[in-house]
Structure formats: structure tokens, C-alpha cells
Amino acid sequence: MKLKVYADRMSQPSRAVIIFCKVNGIDFEEIKVELSKRQQLSAEFKEINPMGKVPAIVDGRLKLFESHAILIYLAGAFPGVADHWYPADVSRRAKIHSVLDWHHSNLRRGAASFVLNTVLAPALGLSLNPQAAAEAEKLLSTSLSIIESIWLKGNGRFLLGGFQPSIADLSLVCEIMQLELLSEEDRSRILGPHKKVQQWIQDTRNATRPHFDEAHNILHKVKTKLAVQLSVRANSEMESSIKRVLPSKM
Amino acid sequence: MKLKVYADRMSQPSRAVIIFCKVNGIDFEEIKVELSKRQQLSAEFKEINPMGKVPAIVDGRLKLFESHAILIYLAGAFPGVADHWYPADVSRRAKIHSVLDWHHSNLRRGAASFVLNTVLAPALGLSLNPQAAAEAEKLLSTSLSIIESIWLKGNGRFLLGGFQPSIADLSLVCEIMQLELLSEEDRSRILGPHKKVQQWIQDTRNATRPHFDEAHNILHKVKTKLAVQLSVRANSEMESSIKRVLPSKM
Q: Which positions fall inside the GST C-terminal domain (chains A, B) (predicted)?
């Protein structure tokens, strides 16, 4: 039975899993779980992942969630995945686990909360929270500095000084790609100072093309949609403020 | 050269690493990094872990931080660690990674923030934040419900239905043990409804005795110290309010 990947490409860890499968020639069926329709909370999907989150996979009798766990599993369970993605060497593997663990409470938390509280919230029926956005930006910028000064400090092009990407590069770069949804001003303020990070994103992209670009296409579409929604909202707010002002002048 | 473990037993992941080494007969040197003295931020320690956090290890040329990464490394690099701690079977291993990944943004975040914002903050020179405590309690309680209803739902005594503990049991139970620092009222309100969780804590404790109790001794000492500080603070506040009241009556 073919591997099933439950995903929404709007989710950065979903994209990491999809790209990993495609780059490594893992045969899989992609099953769309639409977050905007809250399909991840359906009883049917909760049979797959009781946490109600994407991505999740089903491989034979195994149901699995948490994208890092999925990437590690796929690297070990499918033949033909090159060693650099998740090296057999116990020390190199340890360093990858260390970066992936760090990711949860740092880059991930900062990036996801910043994107949510500056652009995504209204599309999910939530309010924007400028204070949460400000705190998230701090965590995000610190995380990018750490990546730049600690894990990309060597001569290698990838995390931990490697010359080929690992699952940690893929996971973290997909997270940062979520910043494509931001305004150009926000994005360049945050990413601008980190030249090595920018080069590393490009290198990871090049190493996983064309699958990387194909999986990220959705971000450009959604960005356009968000911009239209924003302008409609701004127009309707302007109209209602004109209506409020006009009667008082009559 | 002997394995070096840099730790403060007040840190729950530090205890998990120390207990793991002792239970598995791994020969190590424990090097205390006192969080209350901010030793984790010293230039010397940052040579070991640039993130300025404990635990961290040095094993030969390898410097490693993040407790889950450390536990996985130790299980693989040292002979004689029983398979149940970190099974060779790729599916069982995947489930352990999944629980450990989930831990970061759920149980860990809830428990650590609740303990910080109800009892620990003043000892670290910070203010208690009741709103953050309330949010943390919600996340903590949801996390305990998930452990009870999903991962302890089988007949096994440990996470994922096992009959022997894994590194995930050890990591998560050490996290929950941090609740020993709370008032009895808070602790029983939060843990009371979760009978399976209570039994699982006891089972993990039994499986790792006497090292479990020895590593957790510090919590009882610190709890007494916090209670004394609290009563001194309450007395001095009472005295100053009496002083404020008395002159106005005179």
C-alpha cells in the first residue's frame, strides 16, 4: 500500500515532508486536508492524527504525526534516501536532532506567530495582535542571528557546516519561506540583515529544485489573495467612515 | 575521556539526562552550572553551549545540547543501553520521536510557564504573571489530558502502550515532576483529574529508582526554601501595611 501524506501546502512542515518525498523518489499519495475549511479537526482526520494537525502520514499500519518525526522515519524506512539527509554517523545525526529540537521553541515559534499576527489571522477569523507580533519578531530575529552566527559559521553551505542538505535544512528553510506572506517591508527588515541565511535558503532551494518551487507556489497565490482581501477591507472601512462623516455634515 | 554532563538539577531536562546515565551505567562527570547564579550565560559555558542553556554534554570532540538530542545520542553511542529506551525498530522509534517533538510546544511550554509564573519568577528576579499562568495552565491541562487519553490509553504502563520506559517517558515525567514546586492546591487541581498520568509517574519512578528520587531531591529542598522566602515576603508586606495603617490611626 502506497504511503499516504496528509497535508496542506500552506503549512510549512507539510511542504517539508512533500519536498522530501519528491526529492528522494518516495512514491506517495498526497491527501489534502484544508486548514481554511478546518478539515484537520474532522473526526475522520482525527483517526489519523488525534492532535488535529498536518502533516501526518499513514504507512501500512503506522500512523505518524510531527513533521520532524516523519522526516526521520521516511529517511530510515525508505531505500534510496542519500545519507546526507539523515546521516548514519551518530555524532552528525545528534547535531541534526539538536537543531531540530531547537527549532520548535525558537525559529518556529517566532516565525509562525509573526506571520499569524501580521497577515494570516483575519483569513482564519482571528484578530491581529500587534503585541504578540512584536514579541514574535524579536524571537524570530534572534533565531535568524543564531542560525547565521552558529550553524552557518563554517565554510559549508548548509547547517552544521555540511556541503549537502539534511532534513534540518529542509525543515528550517520551509519555515522561513513562510515569511513570503509578509509585506515586502516586514520581510526585508527581518531577513535583510542575514546574508548567510539568504544564501542558505537559495542553496537549499537549488538542491531540491524543481520540487521546492512547486511546493511553494501556493504562497504566491495566497499572498495575492490576502492583498486583495486587505484592499477590499480597507475600501469598505473607508466607505463606512465616509458614510459616518457625510450625514454629520448634512 | 569521560563523558561530561553540564547540568543544574533544578532543570527538568538536566535531571532526565542524569537519571538516564545512572540507570544505564554510563560513566560520566556531572558539572554543575548554577542557573540561579546565571552561570549558563558565562563565556566559559557558552563555549560548550552557545545557547546558554543546560543540559549540555561533551563526549570526546562532540559538544551537544538539547536534552532529547542528548538522550538519543547516549542511547546510540554507549553500549549496554537496553533497547526499550530507544528501540531499534523504525516504527517504535518514530512514535518516540513524535511524542518528544510534541512535548516541546505542549507539555513543556505549559508546565514550565505555569511553574515560572506561579512560584519561580521571584527567585529569578522576575515578576509573577497571572495572565501567563492562566494560559499556561490551560495548555498544561490539555497536554495532560492528551497523555492520558491518547498515549496511555492502551494496557501498557508506559507511553505508546509499552511495558518498559523509553526516553520519552523519562523526559515527560521529569517535566511533570517540576509541578512538585507548586502549592498543594495548584498541584492537586492540575494533576488530580489524571489518574493514569499519576500511575505512569509512579511506574517511571519505580523503573528508575533509586536514581529518580536522588535526582529529584533538589525539588523538595527548593520548595522549602521558596516557602520560607514567601513567608518572609508576606510578613514584611504585612508589617509595612500595618505601618501604613497605624500612623493614619494615630
A: 89-226
Contacts of B53 in chain A (CB under 8 A): none
Q: How far is B236 from chain A (nearest CA, A)?
A: 35
Query: Which option is the CATH number for A104-207: 3.30.70.1140, 3.40.630.30, 3.40.50.300, 1.20.1050.10?
Result: 1.20.1050.10
Q: Give the other-Cβ count within 10 Å of A215's Cβ.
A: 22
Determine whether the interchain pair B51/A102 forms a contact, defined as Cβ–Cβ distance below 8 Å.
yes
Q: What is the pLDDT of residue B234?
A: 67
pLDDT category at B250 given cuts 50, 70, 90 is very low
Domain regions of chain B by residue span: 3-81, 87-207
Half-sphere exposure of A62 (CA within 13 A, CB side): 22
Architecture category of domain A3-81 in CATH: 3-Layer(aba) Sandwich (3.40)
Per-residue pLDDT tens for A26-74? Answer: 999 999 999 989 999 999 999 999 999 999 999 999 999 999 999 999 9
**Among chain B residues, CA nearest to A101:** B66
List chain A residues with CB under 8 Å of B146.
50-51
* Contact: B97, A73; criterion CB under 8 Å: yes
